[in-house]
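EI: anyone free to look at a 465-residue chain?
SC: sure, send it
EI:
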Amino acid sequence: MIRSRIVGSLLALAGVATAVTLLPAASAAPPPELPLAPGLGIRVDGGTDFVGFYVTHIDGTATKVYCIRPDSAEPAGVALRTVSRLPDTSREVTRLLAETLAAHGDAQTPAQAAAVSQALNTEVGNRLAVHRRAALLPARVQRLADRYVAEAHDRLAPYRLAVHLHRSPLPGQSATGNVTLTSASGPARGVVALQHTGNVATPDELHLGANGRARFTYTTTAGGPVHIAAAAAVAPTTLRATRPAAGTQLMVASSPPAEVRANATYQGTAPGIRYRYACTSQCDGSPVVTLTACAPASDARSRITFQLDDRVRRIGFAPASTRACRSIQLALDDGVRVSATWRYLTRRGWTRAYPAAGAFVVDCPAPPPVAVAASYDCTAATVTVVLGRQRGGALRPLRNRTSHRMLLVVSGAAAGRFTLTAGATATAHTFRLACGVGAVLTVRSGVRRTGGGVNYGDPLEIRMP
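SC: here you go
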């Protein structure tokens, strides 16, 4: 693998992880033919066969060139052009050559140079030449060549780099992510450089093992969207080659390294809120509500602001190594909307507001009033009940001006359950009861909550003589 630093600007792509493969651009026109001279290598067969690299100078820079047609005549000079597929060669074989050149083409000893030459000729299919030379070269050279060929197959391009972020930590919090590098053949080793926006801290560099993975810790240091970009230099899928005449050796050299990049972005999600009513089935329309907020472990101070229609209440949290919860109790009217936002104190000051999940509307309407009129003699009684009020000795039915369904529940000596829908006017219900037997009639009103439950009023008992 080839080690390099990230180049270019940060790419801000949405999503937890993306990957892009960048290939070097093909050169426009080959340069003029340049002189060629033997470099490092080993001469065999009485000095008539050179196994190693040749050197030419391109723009003043020494370039190492290898021969992959050894039974042809040696050229006096070369002109290199960038290709993604050599003539009469598959794209996969061209990539094997490119991988070997990128990984080992910069040989530093005669043995290494001879091994690279043998590996390239093995990959391109010059078996007779490889076997003939192997019998004349030191055994260690051929072992090294075989290793280079195996490595090329294990690391065959193209490459894909990916960044995986497992959580979206809030300011002051950390999480663990990983980077993976794979080739067409499977996991690949490499060195990955990381860049990021100013509101997160990461390592500068990661070294990937044989499994092509490395874990790293990232810490959100301020508010706003977070972007992390990774880049690794890898073997190109192209190489530079000559266009030889018939009977002349074909020469190849490494292309500049390619680069793969990956990007990931996130924005922290604030913790939610919980609530609980002091009442369960009986509320008067202004229940005592317990509001609870929990701050996860964080190195940053935080505060939550509750918005209660036109009122505001705040709870502050100090930095802590464990989760902390705090509650407040308030009497809130039915229908009040409760929402909340979090802010975090960083080195840049307080962050923007992060909405908290769990906003709700207080749902504890007061039960409607019940009016009762009764008349009786020594043998029978008549009882009339209605959702409403009694004024001047007359029953005044209630008109339901709310969005809730209201209930009238009668039990005991008589039974009935009556519903008053939104916008409707209550109906009076009359029951005949016997006297002298201690009959008891229980009347109770209720109102159905938006969430489905029912708030009941206190029961009213009517006892017959």
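EI: The first helix runs from residue 91 to 104.
SC: 👍
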